[in-house]
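Changelog entry: the Lipoprotein SmpA/OmlA domain-containing protein record was regenerated in this release. Current contents:
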Amino acid sequence: MGIGLSRPTKQNKLLRYPTAIISWPLERTATTSVRLGKTTLAELERQFGDPLPSAVFNNDDPETQYALYSLKYDPQVKGCRDGDDMPLENQLFVIKDKLVIAQARYSSYESNHTDFDADKREKLVVGKTTRDEALSILGPPNGTRHCPKDVVYAPTGLEYLYVHYVDEFSLGSKYRLKWLTVEFEQGIVSAVRYREGKSTKEPEVEAAATHEPASTEKSVADDASEEPPSATTTAL
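Regenerated structure tokens:
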């Protein structure tokens, strides 16, 4: 087990950070080489090196491990909060049975909060766009299901977490997100849902696009108020 991997404990409800944030040559594009459910822990460490040490996460699943990398750290650059003296950018990999099962990127830099290109969403046509066409437009999913207990709204769909950053370094802290879900029926797009929000416990749904005719079907936005998708997410 790498020095930066840790098993969650119920006793530790705060994330422990090392005294020094180490910069790693880990670019966003590099993580596309990670294949969820296929890339092994050994392959991950060979590609990116040892994760950050002393990261302890609160989770009830004793078999889940985490590998945390620091992408960027500059004490001279302010983050998303006025006067923030510790902006950072992290990449988290979730490990189970020695395989990478999910990944997520966290940032406190304002420059990273505009990743989502709304024009891409508009190119997806419900009832017409195929799964292959959707993948060519959006690229491969980036592993938004980084928390093992997340509610799976569309297990056969595609999910993209464009932005996820926190205001505090503790569990249950404020966070914001931009989250796109594409659902399919028989290989054809059946729904496109975009969610954007800020909350202290669960995301507020500020925007939702289904590109569907009006119906009585309960949307992902409605479900979010009942079961927050990141209720057990560790804040970084």
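The radius of gyration is 18 Å.
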